[in-house]
Design goal:
It is a single chain. With 98 residues, the protein is mainly α. It has a domain of 41 residues. 59% of the residues lie in helices and 0% in strands. It is built from 4 helices and no strands. The chain is extended. The two termini are 27 Å apart.
Length: 98
């Protein structure tokens, strides 16, 4: 019996990435480039974070990477499956296939 988890997870991640791509492509250039140094240094809008806007964006990236690392660890420990590290000069990720 084939597991339903890979299908569910891949569909949801693909949908999230596709929505991000659509939003980025729809964003006018003058709106996309509004993260000035001044804006990046302003406090983010969440009262529970003591971060500025620039740090908040980087924190979101770090949060996503943290969970990707957790999943890779679980795959290695439970199924002895390695996940390649992407992003180095000799191991760049390919273009999305959506």
């Amino acid at each position: 019996m084939e597991s339903f988890w890979p299908t569910m997870i891949s569909r949801q991640f693909a949908a999230a990435l596709q929505m991000l791509r659509i939003a980025i492509e729809a964003c006018p250039e003058e709106t996309f480039a509004t993260l000035t140094e001044e804006r990046a240094l302003e406090r983010c809008g969440f009262w529970w974070y003591e971060l500025n806007v620039g740090e908040f964006h980087l924190n979101n990236l770090r949060h996503t990477q943290h969970h990707a690392g957790q999943l890779a660890l679980l795959l290695r420990r439970r199924a002895d499956i390695g996940v390649d590290w992407l992003g180095t000069e000799d191991n760049k990720p390919g273009r999305p296939t959506w």
